Amino acid sequence: MKTSRKIILITMSTSLVLLFLVVTIFLLYRSFISPVSKNTDTKEVVIENGMTSIKIGKLLKENNLIKNDKFFVFYLKLNQVNDIKAGTYELSENMPLKKIVEILRKGNTFSNEEIQITFKEGINMREIAKVIANNTENTEEDVMNVLKDKDYLNSLIEDYWFITDSILDSKIYYPLEGYLFPDTYKFRSKKVTVEEIFKVLLDQMETVLEPYKELIEINKLSVHEILTMASIAEKEVNKETDRAKVVSVFNNRIKNKMSLGSDVTARYGIKLDDKRPLTKSELNDDNPYNTRVLTKLGLPVGPIAMVSKSSIEASIRPANTNYLYFISNINTDETFFFETSREFENKKAELNSVNGGY
């Protein structure tokens, strides 16, 4: 009986050891095939003719594209991969090992004609047109002509759930203002069309807005108003952490039947892109965007700039405050919030020498 017990105990111990090893190997395997990081920046990697899998693995590891070069070689053998092609590739750390191998097997997809364009948060359509003109064969006029094409705009309303006929309002300067998502993008060549560029940026905006779709529908929020509010917050303050409070200020002013009083809407309304102070007549200019006009209540007719994800988040989930005023120190980017006009005016006077009257 004692011998039988010993055999059972040894068998159980062996089974536990084997189970532990299997689990450990499984976890290591999952770890090694997963992306190195969430970084989406691409790196150019050149696979030369005759390069062995060992050398390729070391090259990928040196570029921090895989976690372990020896496992890379093992992975190729395990999956009977022996057809990696020489060429120049654009790879990033957020790619899992399987995707990297698939790209290397497919062959060189990198083109010498490929271009990269960066659209920064906070720029408006006039500035977007300049960026496109400076990087492609399109002119600024080409961009504006596309925005005037009613058939094209109606096709976008049909294709994208977040675009409505709000963009067709005749008072809006540029129909897709605020709807194009800012980021760095790659395009086939300088021959890329304006429509192709817009599609890529609109697709990205759809990706960014998708997680909020249910919340937007439940709360019956207008995407046009969300992007309009987000664009004002984007331009008003540079710190992402301040934007939810800025949106709360504007929401509180709307509830209290006060004009938003936003200088950035006044600047956009007169199509002024430089940084000089606004004159009194410019601040009082009666246009569809200028919320400095006391009789203009609520949001302007549409967005005034490209918006970041943080500004969209702030617009959808604003802070809960009683603030009605804010002012920023333009040198430090520090923003101060107040419930009363007296507090606001005191801080404005204090910052007068710094902000130059802003």
Can you tell me about this structure?
This protein has 358 residues and is mainly alpha-helical. The protein has three domains: 2-106, Endolytic murein transglycosylase (Dna Ligase, domain 1, 2-Layer Sandwich), CATH 3.30.1490.480; 115-209, no CATH class; 221-355, no CATH class. It contains 16 helices and six strands. The chain has helices spanning 2-33, 53-62, 69-78, 97-106, 125-135, 140-147, 150-159, 194-209, 213-218, 223-236, 240-255, 263-269, 280-283, 309-316, 341-350, 352-355, and strands at 42-47, 87-92, 115-118, 184-187, 325-328, 335-338. The protein has a two-stranded antiparallel sheet. A two-stranded antiparallel ribbon has the order 3-4. Helix 11 (240-255) packs parallel to helix 14 (309-316). The radius of gyration is 28 Å and the shape is globular. The model has no long low-confidence stretch (mean pLDDT 90).
Helix-strand blueprint:
Elements: H1 2-33, E1 42-47, H2 53-62, H3 69-78, E2 87-92, H4 97-106, E3 115-118, H5 125-135, H6 140-147, H7 150-159, E4 184-187, H8 194-209, H9 213-218, H10 223-236, H11 240-255, H12 263-269, H13 280-283, H14 309-316, E5 325-328, E6 335-338, H15 341-350, H16 352-355
Antiparallel strand pairs: 1-2, 3-4, 5-6
